[in-house]
Amino acid sequence: MSQTVPPSPTWRLGLTGGIGSGKSTVASMLQTHGATVIDADAISRACTAPSGLAIPAIATTFGAEFVAADGSLDRERMRSLVFEKPSARQALEAIVHPLVGGEIRRQIDTAATSCLVFDIPLLVESPRWRIQLDRVLVVDCLPTTQKERVRERSGWSDATIDAVMRNQATRQQRLAAADVVVHNDGLTLAQLQRVVAQMAWAFGL
User: Count of alpha carbons within 13 Å of 72, Cβ hemisphere only?
Assistant: First the structure.
């Protein structure tokens, strides 16, 4: 009599890291090993892209001036507002988060792999996530490295980078929340790939 082989358990991994840490690079590498990556930030951007689902509520709550000519969120204007007024961030999150949550649930339901990686920039800042995850993976590097990478990548001023970093969890808070840490300081891309390959193997990829 044949026996049914039980399906492999599904890992639910939370991936986070400060701006410029290399989190998105690690997510992409895990994806090449077969993980399904659910990118909360990309979903959020889609909600605020031209004709995105969040745009009508943003215009109603904040005013038409927060919608750019192409129908997307005016990110620079909104970034300035939320840095000045924490209540504005809360109002924006109240619009975007339910939409993001719905799309995340849809992607979970349609995933065909046994390892789900939730790429969540503010995982540590949003404690509701921890209870939904099996492990938290943190990509870590020195704050000076973060700033160097963001300057090279985005051309932001130090003042802008500092403002973003102040609105994220501290390095110590992220490390305290981590089950696995990827130390991404002084590594070549090839070295980082080897680290990620070992981690992928540990999670059955």
Answer: 10
